[in-house]
Every structure is written in structure tokens, then in C-alpha cells.
Amino acid sequence: MMKTRLAHPLISCICITSNRPQMLLKNIVSFDTQNYPNRELVISYPKQEFETRNLINHIKAISELNILTVERETDESVGQARNKAIEICNGEYVCCWDDDDLYHYNRITHQFNSMQGNYYQAGILSKVLIYDTVEDKAYQSYAHNWGGTLICKKELIVRHPYGDSNSSEDVTTLNSLDSRGYLLSISDAPFLYVLIRHHQNATQRIYFQKFLNISNKLDANSTRQIRQQYETQINLV
User: Fold this and answer.
1) What distance in Å separates the CA atoms of residue 140 and residue 128, rounded to the nearest whole number?
2) Residue 6: CB atoms within 10 Å
3) What domains can you pick out in the chain, each with its CATH number?
4) Per-residue pLDDT averaged across 201-207, rounded?
């Protein structure tokens, strides 16, 4: 029998969330509007967060979204949570899907096609947009491998797992992928991902400010458009 390969392998979007149901809802909607056809969303949340659990159960009851859940211990690190969510996912590829950032509907498709066209097993955005909610300013980032944008073959992440940490848990993983030639840095589509700076970021404020100081500030109109997207409220029926 002739062997064939699916043009659209299953991609598992890994979302680690904690006590931010309104942000989570917006990102579930962003997942729903992605134009990549074969995907699942894996959501990890602390087991005592009943509001998050109720939100997810409600969405599963009223939609056909492909959602898996992992209830984790309160003291489990973000890195541990990512690794455990990846263990139970069904995708050939995994995609970071942070609960507090914004996504263009073409994000998964553009990244995956870029990887496939260049014969890479992992892809990451080296430029993104940044919206600073504290100062109400928007930027195009400097060139950097932004860990939250990673799409990668699952088997590679299993071999090079995330560190047991609540911040910078991806450094060793990204370095391993890059040094072995697996990782494609994508610089032509910063609009695919808006990194949100708010009061609860894992990255310390002093480091985030360094990011902004070497990024390019966007004009008032661009900032307004991103602000409107960020401030849009979603209510379930």
C-alpha cells in the first residue's frame, strides 16, 4: 500500500492558565477562530479553580471545540505543567498557547507552513508585537526567539522538556532545539502574536522594560487597534 501523509497533522495548543477565566475565554475564542483545520486545545489549570473548570465545561457543552483538560496541583511549576499537558496531548505537533496574549487567526497556519516549506520540525517567531497595558504603548519587538510562540514536533519536546520553573522554563528547551538545527526563526510576521505586558507577567518588570527599550514603538493608530482588541469583552450566551 502506498504511504501517504496528512497535509494537516493534528496540532495540540498547550494552554497553562491560573485564575484568569476572562483572559482564558478570549484565548479559547482565538483558538476557535484559527484557520488551521486540525487542532486541539489542552488546558492545564489548578484543580481547586472551580470557575475555570465551570467555564471550560460550559464551552464544551455548547460547542464542538476539541478541548482536553489537565487539573494540576497548586504547587506545580509552569514547566512541569507544560510537560504534563504535552504528555497527554494527541497532536503530532504542539503549539504554545499562553492564556494572556493575543493571536491572529492565521497564526498556526503561517507558522506551520513556514516550517514545512523550509523543512524544519520546529518554528518560532523572532518578532512579535508587544502591548504594554501599564503605559498604553505598543511596540514591534526586537529580534529574539519568543518562547511563547513555539510550534514543535511533540517528540522533540518530549526529548528536550521544559525546566521545572515558573519563569524562563523554556530556555534550555529552545537552546537544545536551536543548537541541533531543528528551530526555524520566523521574522516576517510579527502581527501574528501580540505579547501583553500587564501586572501579572511571569517576567520581572525590570526585564520587561529592557525588552521595550530596544523595541520599536508603534504609532498611535496601531496602538489604538491593539488596545481595542485587548479590551474587547466576550460573554457566553
Assistant:
1) 6
2) 8
3) 11-125+144-186 (3.90.550.10)
4) 57
